[in-house]
Amino acid sequence: YLTGSTVTVSGASFTSCTASWGGNDIYTYGSTLTCTAACNDAGMYMPSGSCSSPVAADVYGGGSCKSYCSSASSDCSVCPSDTYYEDYSTNTACDECASGSAGISDDGSDASAHDEAEDCIGDPTPLPTPLPTPATPAPTTVPTATAVPTGLPSSTPTSAPSLLPTVSPVPTPRPSPLPSQLPSAQPTPLPTSPPSPLPTTPRPSPLPTLAPTVSDLTTLSATVELSGLDASSVDDDDISALKTGLASVIAGVSASNIDNIVVTDASTRRLGAVIADATTATQKSRRRLATAASVAFDISLSTSASASFTDPDAFEEAVTADLQDAQTDSSDFVTAIQDAATSTTFDAVPTSSAVTLGAIIKVTRPPTIAPSPEPTAMPSPSPTVDHLTAYVTGIDDLDRVHYAFVFGTTALITLFAVFVYCTHPSKQKIGAGDCAVVIFAWMDMAGDACFVQSLYYRRSLSVRIGDLQREANNIPEAGLLDAFFVAALLGMVIPTLFQTYFVVQLIQEGSRKQWLDTKRLPKHSTITVIMLCFTDPDAVVI
Q1: Which pTM was predicted?
Q2: What is the rounded CA–CA span in Å between residue 369 and residue 304?
Q3: 217 and 301 in contact (C-beta within 8 Å)?
Q4: CA within 20 to 30 Å of 351's CA: 47, 254, 305, 410, which one?
Q5: Which of 94, 103, 116, 110 is nearest to 47 (CA)?
Q6: Do residues 96 and 62 lie in contact, with contact meaning Cβ atoms separated by under 8 Å?
Q7: What digits encode the pLDDT tens for the residues 322-355?
Q8: Using one digit for the tens of pLDDT, what is the confidence trace for 156-165?
């Protein structure tokens, strides 16, 4: 029985109750009870202002109570559009939505769309764009002129093509050594840029990996919802507590097998209890926020290394069964979390009916490739080189070196010849033509030496170029260059050895027959001539 209170009851009947006090429906003591039969739902109104068929309850202790309106379905109507009503009463009209609000589009169909003032707000408008929308350009006042059609084609065809191709007077620059993906309008004057100074591939590890990953590594991605948990207050220590709690209810799984825990807000707003004043017959309902959080996590382990599971399917079935048991009775799960937590984050989580199990997804990862038994070789410190580019640029650079060598040494031999011509005791026997013969003979010998060195250089680069590049650029094979190099080297070395031998014999014979003036041998000019004779066969004429 009630000794004194204010209460609002909607949609409840007190008639024909079996109360223990004398068979009355309601017992009052020291107060007067007044009940009004009104509409059963908020968002409705009663046009007549009263119920046509109220049902009275048997009240003991004074007062009368119309417990409910049996004709509410015909006496009450849903609020029209742009109106709402939050109470349960005999109101003859609904409240208008505030001026400037979005209003309510529903017109007397759904009472839940008119049961609170927030229904008038509607959905918010989208955020403004960061930049203004460009205005549509104004139409032109003058129409756009169309192009005048061309005249008829000429009746006479163009001149016949030339029999021979046209040759440009100036040659084009040197093309690039390698073709590009799309041809350029004109060839580039120089080859592509040199390679990077450092190797592009990373340095390999000094030792191989220990072992590849196994093929039965299985990951289960699951989601559970915890009521009473505020997601915004969860920190790293709370994540560790969740791991401990999950491991406590899943057999064969440790906290180290659980990772990737993500906690998100899952709170919902629900209709709260109905509150009313019995003396004023007013009734109101309020919505309250039900706090909850969604916990997503992964469980990963190898079934072959586990003593609890024989295969991935058995692993999935066991985890699913344990989480379903935690949903049925969450006391052990919540208690384990609260014991492991160092904060009060989980104090509001109820020990029973706190877990709602979501979806469980199984992912089986394939094994990685087995490691090589030995570590890979260390990369070379030099960068990756385009050998075709090096071949072209190297030959150009070598040609410049040869030009400098021939010019420089010929200039030096010219100075020697002039020195001999001016200082030799028997210069009356030496003509200017003899000096010219010596100079041109040395130039020929220097050219031969450069040719031999060029063959050797081309051969060393040719072996590094692929067959396709060699054929496309008409580069001789290394074997052919080897043959030319050996022949040129022998053709230079053998005559030089013979020349040296005959010069020595000539000096010795001249000494015996006193052809040479031994007193003049130490002179600079004579020593110079002898030096030239060993390298330049034509120097003997001096």
Answers
A1: 0.31
A2: 18
A3: yes
A4: 254
A5: 94
A6: no
A7: 999 988 888 888 999 989 998 888 888 887 778 8
A8: 666 667 666 6
